[in-house]
């Protein structure tokens, strides 16, 4: 496969359009027709290189350097193409943490992922929720390095003005189907999930507020529509069905109902649209790629896809109207029937060069050893059995918070610890699992266990709230019908694993033959259902009035995931350290760890003849969990291994 040079990449948006014009000059009486291609990247999360820093090896499923080749090819196919980014750029990989916590970013310096993006000719971007993880000052310095602007209409400073401009209008020369040139005005508006003020309270409290996405759209769209020929919404928010809700995190479908938008570029959910992920949602055409009739696209994550929306415009009087469209998400790789990854494009040299120095420094950073582990740490079975990868986080949080609680006068309260498996397959694919071998343990391994730059928080809750917290977490599981003889998938694929909190310090069972008490959004769906059984503390049933401290992170404590007892109002301690750094410090203090799960939770038995299936990575075969009978059922087209799970008894 031939790499596309930087010169070809730059020329593809300038010299080629005129050469590719196919139609003759239009007659005066015929309306001008023009095709406009919108290109989207989203949720790059600092993945400039096709590299997995956690496993310290090349990875053909990620990387803006790969997406850049798709961008060049997409530009070469049409006379008119514009490139946008939909947010979550500066955080999300060890390279991002290296820059924020080790290297630093001084005024005038350009962040390496921004330097890589600057090679590609973006028109505009918007802000994602993870842009705020390192604070507003760091974000400001990062944005200053862009050679393209960003817009966001619903993040407000204390004086009521937006943090960055809410909208922008770009005038570009376009070529119509007859080869004639036209000056086209492209209006752009951007949005971020309003929940950022909860998720990043420590960084944003008193410095930033948010408003509902749809409300912000209604405020700004009339003026933007009057100034633009085409309006594009950069919506770092996903697609969810149901009735519109004020302050919705995933509001793209509701946004599509606001008049004046010609195309919506979505993201945040790390999924692909058009595609089956969004089938059977009212108002969504998952095949054509529309939200209430408005063309939309979601381009995966980490550079896995390029979003493409082709608009057909026709001149009607003094205005341009959209008379046709086509949407698609183009992948940078494909998976063969024998589960091998095949790259569809080569990396673009200019993008690699822009981030090379930081990439190499990140490799040195993540390879630093901090201790050793006597046992394996992996997450292949973390969703169905107590697991070492979660246990080590809980142990570290308990170790860290215990002394802080005593110094704060809270040492008399029993201390629990909540942690979740972050890498557990799902949309990340069959290789997306923590897998650390015995021996020296490095920063990259800790980052593989704890992905996010969360900070430690402690909440004070009652026994009743602990029970409901666990009920919300148990929404991970589908309802297993004990009378059915058909195969039943155990895991709800729409429930993110980072919301499957395991609470250490108590013991309990989860009965999946009961319906889920909470739905995927955290609302009570089955008031009479109770999956949590045998909830006990120190061997005795938990008193619902008893108070507990729970060590967790800022995302959960601030309301992330909508967990009972964790809405920002129950926080009693805000620690300055990252949860990940706490794990590092714990390993350094222990020097050697033996990450054995304590089996404080388990799945309650179901009938022996029920066919309950679970999919995990191929590497799971060597680590079959105690307490469950496991029988391999074959492989899925995506490369996962499927097992039938059962219980003794």
Overview of the molecule:
Its cofactor is a divalent metal cation. Keywords: Hydrolase, Metal-binding, Multifunctional enzyme, Nucleotide-binding, Signal. Its main location: other. This protein has 649 residues and is α/β, with parallel strands linked by helices. It has two domains: 34-361, Metallo-dependent phosphatases (Purple Acid Phosphatase, chain A, domain 2, 4-Layer Sandwich); 369-646, Alpha-Beta Complex (5'-nucleotidase,  domain 2). Helices cover 23% and strands 29% of the residues. It has 16 helices and 38 strands. Strands 8, 9, 11, 12, 13, 14, 15 and 16 form an eight-stranded mixed sheet that branches. A six-stranded mixed sheet has the order 6-5-4-1-17-18. A hairpin with a 2-residue loop joins strand 15 and strand 16 (294-299). Helix 4 (94-103) packs across helix 11 (349-366). It is globular. It starts with 5 loop residues before the first helix and ends with a strand.
Write down the CATH class of the largest domain.
Alpha Beta
Shape call: globular
What's the CATH H-level superfamily name of the largest domain? Answer: Metallo-dependent phosphatases
Instruction: List unreliable stretches of 5+ residues.
Output: 1-28
Give the strand content.
Answer: 25-35%
Distance between the termini: 56 Å
Number of strands: 38
Mean pLDDT level? 92
CATH topology of the largest domain: Purple Acid Phosphatase, chain A, domain 2
The helix count comes to: 16
């Amino acid at each position: 496969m031939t790499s596309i040079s930087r010169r070809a990449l730059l020329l593809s948006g300038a010299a080629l359009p005129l050469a590719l014009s196919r139609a003759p000059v239009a007659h005066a009486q015929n309306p001008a027709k023009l095709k406009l291609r919108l290109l989207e990247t989203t949720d790059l999360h600092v993945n400039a290189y096709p590299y997995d820093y956690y496993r310290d090896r090349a990875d053909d499923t990620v990387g803006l350097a790969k997406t850049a080749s798709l961008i060049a090819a997409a530009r070469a196919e049409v006379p008119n193409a514009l490139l946008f980014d939909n947010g979550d750029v500066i955080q999300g990989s060890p390279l991002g943490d290296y820059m924020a916590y080790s290297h630093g970013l001084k005024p005038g310096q350009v962040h390496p992922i921004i330097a890589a993006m600057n090679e590609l000719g973006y028109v505009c971007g918007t802000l994602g929720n993870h842009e705020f993880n390192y604070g507003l000052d760091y974000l400001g310095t990062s944005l200053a390095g862009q050679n393209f602007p960003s817009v966001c209409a619903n993040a407000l400073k204390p004086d009521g003005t937006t943090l960055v401009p809410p909208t922008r209008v770009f005038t570009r020369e376009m070529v119509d189907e007859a080869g004639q040139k036209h000056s086209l005005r492209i209006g752009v508006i951007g949005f971020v999930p309003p929940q950022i003020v909860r998720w990043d309270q420590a960084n944003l409290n008193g410095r930033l507020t948010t408003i509902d996405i749809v409300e912000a759209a209604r405020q700004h769209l009339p003026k933007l529509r009057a100034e633009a020929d085409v309006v594009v919404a950069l919506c770092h928010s996903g697609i969810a069905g149901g009735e519109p809700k004020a302050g919705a995190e995933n509001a793209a479908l509701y946004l599509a109902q606001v008049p004046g938008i010609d195309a919506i570029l979505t993201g945040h959910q790390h999924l692909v649209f058009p595609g089956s992920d969004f089938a059977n949602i009212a108002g969504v055409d998952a095949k054509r790629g529309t939200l209430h009739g408005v063309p939309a696209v979601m381009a995966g994550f980490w550079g896995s896809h390029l979003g493409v929306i082709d608009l057909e415009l026709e001149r009607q009087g003094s205005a341009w109207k959209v008379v046709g469209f086509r949407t698609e998400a183009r992948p940078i790789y494909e998976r063969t029937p024998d589960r091998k990854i095949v790259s569809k494009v080569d990396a673009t040299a200019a993008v690699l060069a822009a981030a090379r120095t930081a990439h190499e420094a990140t490799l040195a950073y993540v390879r630093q050893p901090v201790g050793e582990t006597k046992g394996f740490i992996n997450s292949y079975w973390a969703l169905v059995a107590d697991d070492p990868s979660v246990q080590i986080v809980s142990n570290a949080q308990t170790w860290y918070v215990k002394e802080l609680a005593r110094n704060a006068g809270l040492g008399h309260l029993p201390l629990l610890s909540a942690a979740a498996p972050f890498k557990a397959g799902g949309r990340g694919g069959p290789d997306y699992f923590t897998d650390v071998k015995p021996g020296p343990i490095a920063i990259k391994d800790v980052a593989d266990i704890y992905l996010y730059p969360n900070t430690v928080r402690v909440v004070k809750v009652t026994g009743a709230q602990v029970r409901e917290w666990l009920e919300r977490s148990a929404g991970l599981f589908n309802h297993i019908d004990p009378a059915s003889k058909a195969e039943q998938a155990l895991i709800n694929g729409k429930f993110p694993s980072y919301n499957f909190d395991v609470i250490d310090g108590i013991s309990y069972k989860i009965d999946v033959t009961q319906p889920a008490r909470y739905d995927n959004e955290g609302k009570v769906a089955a008031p009479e259902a109770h999956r949590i059984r045998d909830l006990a503390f120190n061997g005795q049933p938990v008193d619902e009035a008893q108070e507990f401290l729970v060590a967790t992170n800022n995302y959960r404590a601030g309301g992330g995931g909508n967990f009972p007892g964790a809405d920002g109002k129950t926080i009693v301690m805000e620690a300055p350290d990252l949860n990940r750094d706490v794990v590092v410090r714990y390993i350094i203090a222990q020097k050697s760890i033996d990450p054995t799960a304590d089996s404080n939770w388990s799945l309650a038995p179901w009938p022996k003849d029920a066919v309950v299936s679970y999919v995990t990575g191929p590497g799971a075969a060597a680590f079959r969990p105690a307490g469950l009978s496991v029988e391999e059922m074959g492989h899925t087209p995506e490369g996962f291994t499927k097992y039938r799970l059962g219980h003794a008894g």
